[in-house]
Amino acid sequence: MNSETIYRIEQRKNNFMKAPQDHIGQRLNFAVHLRKNKRQQAVIKYREKNINSELQAGKEEITIKGRLEFSFGAIEKLLNFIDQNNCKMVLNQILIICQSNQDLKILDFPNLVLRFTDFLDSIYEDEISEIAMTILMVLTSKISYNPMLYIDSLDLNKLVLCLNENKPKTSVKVFKTFADLASDCSEMREKIISLGIHKKLINYSYQTNNIKCLRITSEFIKSLAIDQKTLPHEVFELCLATTKKFLMIKKTKITINSLTALSLFCRENLRKIQAVINLGILDDILKLCLHKNKQIQEASIYIIGNISYGDPPQINELIEHNIFNYLIKTIDSHSNSVRKETVYIISNIIASGNKYLQYLLEHEIIDKLICKLEVDDYHFIKELSFVFYNSSHLANYRNFRVFVDKKVFYFIKGPLCSVNPVSIVNCLKFIIAVLKVYGENDSMEAIESMEYTQCIDVVESLCNNPNTTVQMIAEDILEFFKKDMAYEFSWNY
C-alpha cells in the first residue's frame, strides 16, 4: 500500500462523523429557512382563520346528510359585519356559502333580497355590485317552485338603474337575471312586460356595444317570442325591429337567438308572417339557410317553413326571392332537420295552387325530389310523400307527364316498400291520380311505365298489407290494369 493511499485512509478516519464548519453553517441556515417558511405558512393560515372566524361569528352550522349547511340567519349576520373595508371579502364569503348549499330558500327571508340590492347603488364599484347580483342569481335559481314571489320582492327599478356603461359587469348580470326570469314561465313574462322592463332592457341594447349584453338581450327576446299569440302588438314590433338589428351583428349565438325569435313570431300567424316579410331581410334569411353553422341553417329554414304556411301573396314573396334556388341546396344538407324542413316547404308551396306546382316542375329541383324517393330515411320520406300527395290534388295531364317522363314510378317503389303507412298511402294516392288523369286522356303511357319499372309488382304485393287503407288503394290501382287487359283482349279478339 503506497503512502498516498495510507494518507487518504487516515484523513477519512480523522474526519469521520465531523463536518467542515462552513457546511454546518449552511445546514443551519437551511434549517432556519425551512422553519421560517413553515412559520409563515402557519401565520397566513392563522390570519385567514381569524378573518373567517370574525366574519362568520354567530354562523349557524348544522350537518345534514354529511354536508355543512348554512342558514339565511347566518348570512344575515355576515351582512352586519360589512363596512367599506371588508365589503368585497364578506360578499365573496356569502357567495361561496350560497353556491355550496342547495337547500337555501330565499323566500323565507324576503328582506334579505333588498339587503343585496342595496349593493347595486351607484356608490358601490362595479365589482361589488356584480358579486351582489351574482348572489341574487344563485339564490333565485333555487326557487323555481314560486318565482313570482321573488320578482315581487326585488327592487326592480334599482336593478334597471344598474344598466349603464359604468357598471359593465353588473349590467351583464342584470340582463342575465331578467333573461332567466323571462324563460321561466308565461306569468313571469307578462309581469316583466306589465312593468315596462322589456323596454328598458331593449332600449339599453341600442346604447351599448357590450356583446354579452346583446347576446343575453337576444335570449330575452327569444323568450318573449314564445308567447307570440298573446304578446301585445307594440311589444312584438319593438322585438321585431331589435331582432333585425341583431342579425346585422353577425355573432353566432346572437344570430341563432334572433332567427329562433323570428321563427316563433311568425308561427301560424298570417299578420306576423307579413310583418317578418316587411322587415326586408328575406334574402338574408335565405342566404343563412346555406350557412356552414348547422344551428343557423336550421333556425333560418324554420322561418321559411313558417312563411310557407302563409297565404298566396306571401308564397309569392318566396317565389320572387327564387326560393327553389336555395331549396335545391338545402335538400342535400348534412342536417336531417334542414332536409326534412325543405320538403315540408315545397309541399306547402305547391299546396297553394297549380301555378306553384308549375313553378316546381319547371325547376331542376324536381329531378332531385324524384331521386330522393330512394333515400332510406323514415321521417324525410314521410315528409317528401306529401309533396306527391299534394301534387295528386292539383296536377293536370301536362303536369303528370313531367313526373312520368322523369321515371317517377321507378323511384316511388322506395317509399312503397317502406314500413311507414303514411308514406305508402300518400304515394299510392299519387299513383291512382296519375292513372285516372291518363285514363281520361286515353293514354296508356302511365300503365306501361309502371309495368316497365316493375312498380306494379310492388303495388300488387301491397294487397296483402296489414293496413286496410293501403290494401284498398292498391286494389283500386290494380283495377286499372285489369281494365287495360280486358280492353286489349277485346281489341285483339
Q: Any descriptors?
A:
493 residues; mainly alpha; Leucine-rich Repeat Variant; two-stranded antiparallel ribbon; 2 strands; elongated; disordered C terminus; ARM-type_fold; protein transport; ARM-like; Armadillo; Importin subunit alpha
Task: Describe it.
A two-stranded antiparallel sheet has the order 1-2. Mean pLDDT is 80; it is low at 16-21, 54-70 and 485-493. The protein starts with a helix and ends with a helix. Among the domains are: 1-17 and 355-486, Leucine-rich Repeat Variant (Alpha Horseshoe); 267-352, Leucine-rich Repeat Variant (Alpha Horseshoe), CATH 1.25.10.10. It is mainly α. It has helices at residues 3-15, 21-55, 72-80, 87-100, 110-117, 126-140, 147-153, 156-161, 168-182, 186-194, 197-205, 211-225, 233-247, 252-265, 270-278, 282-288, 294-307, 312-320, 323-330, 336-350, 354-361, 365-371, 378-394, 397-405, 408-411, 413-416, 421-440, 445-452, 455-461, 468-492; strands spanning 61-64, 67-70. The protein contains 30 helices and two strands. 35% of the residues are buried.
